[in-house]
Amino acid sequence: MSAEPSPKRLKVDDEEGVDEGAPAENGAADWAPEAAEDSVAAELEDCQRALDKVNDEASDRVLAVEQEYNKKRRPIYAQRAEIIQKVPLFWQRTLLSHPTLADQLTDDDSQVLEFLVELDVVDFDDIKSGFKVVLTFAPNNTHFSDRTLVKAFHYGDDGKVTIEPAVIHWNEGYAPFPESGGPSYFFFEWMTIAEAVGEGTPDEVAEVLKDEIWPNPVKYFLNGEVEPAAYEQGRAVVGVPPPLL
Known about the structure:
46% of the residues lie in helices and 11% in strands. The chain has helices at 7-16, 34-84, 90-97, 99-102, 107-113, 187-191, 204-213, 217-223, 228-237; strands at residues 116-123, 130-137, 148-155, 161-164. Strand 1 and strand 2 (130-137) form a beta hairpin.
């Protein structure tokens, strides 16, 4: 009677017959023919194009909503501006109280800001192409003849920012001449230059005005160092109750 073949021997024989050049049955990760790679890359590109299309649609919708609500905000901003004009030295105190601007504004800046009666930040109609900072001064401003100063920031499709500065017509004796002991300005020099201020941002001062001060200027006015009478008058006008004694 012949002996049955050893199961162990059969297993060894099977393993010896495996072609080491063939892919493993479980789809080893390191085996990827060029044809398969090309197919996967094409599928991923199709997915990315679909995502880009949805993202573009989302951006358009967001812009449309922002444009709609910008129009709704304008009447409220106008109402706020009327109230602010009742508060003595509101914008001077507000700008001097912002932590970024406080250390940069000069005494000469502060003197001119006494005549600032309105600060406005206006987005362009399509929003994405930029905005402008508009300053309005009292008619008795002794420093320059301009009632309004405008500085605009234009965003190009290539991401480049083009700055359109203001032109200031200084009255005699008030033009900046720090080299000879004359007036020295930071804020009003910034208004007249076409170069960005600050590293890594389109413009540090513009961002402070647009994103921090403009949305809620009362926050900085009430946090500033002001004379007690002006402080209490400002709180009353903007609707803040007096502190409890």
